Amino acid sequence: MTAASFLYQLDADPSPLWGESFVDLGIVTRTGVPVLPGFVLSAAAIQALYLQPKLRKEIERKMQAHDFKKPQFTAGLSHDIRQLILKSSVPPEWNTTVKPLFEDLEKHLLLKKGAGLRVLVTSSNADSYPQVAFVKTWDEALKLLLSSLASAFTVQALHQRIQLGGSIMPQPSAMLFQVHPEGEASGIGQQYDPQHHDEHTVYLTAHYHEGAHAPTSGVDVYRYDRSTLLPLSKQLGRHRWRSTHDGNHAKPAQPTVSV
Description:
Helix content: 25-40%
CATH superfamily of the largest domain: ATP-grasp fold, A domain
Radius of gyration: 21 Å
Strand order of the largest sheet: 1-2-5-3-4
Number of helices: 9
């Protein structure tokens, strides 16, 4: 079993194992387009985690104690399984097959070992939610991965899988670990806008709204050099203050994610 691979090493042949979107990103990396460094855990590696005897036995025990004829108890089952995932160990072979790739990310960024880096963990399908955190150790990186995997066991997700009559376990999918530096943009929702680009620049947009009392929305636009990813210009619309009835200034509008 191939547990992990750097993005630039992925090719189109094993896409079911690595996730089509991650394989495409690996292809883009080899064309010379600047892509933040990262590595991918294969779907087989994630399946090996789910199939660990202790974890599998505990999940089966929780399922047997659950009355599937009473949907109101699904919330309890959801909570119990998420806690089991969060506290789970990982296959011991990951120490030799996956951990070195994480350590190589530090070397790639010329960081001292243990200095820490901001990492994004995301799945190749929509079952798990992306997680971002600053981590200093491999153990902290694993906690971030388990947090993303645990998000696939929400009440809604469990209910849907139960209704379909299949396994309550999600389909194992590849997981991407990627360096995720702090962005300069004002909003937490940044995205690449394919409608506004040329061969020299990349645009990022941050959408926001003014809140219930002033339900207007807008967008900040950031322009970056495509080859270096250095900022070139920015057009801001969110840094505005609005007065309340007592004459005091309210807090700035909170951005919302736009994907």
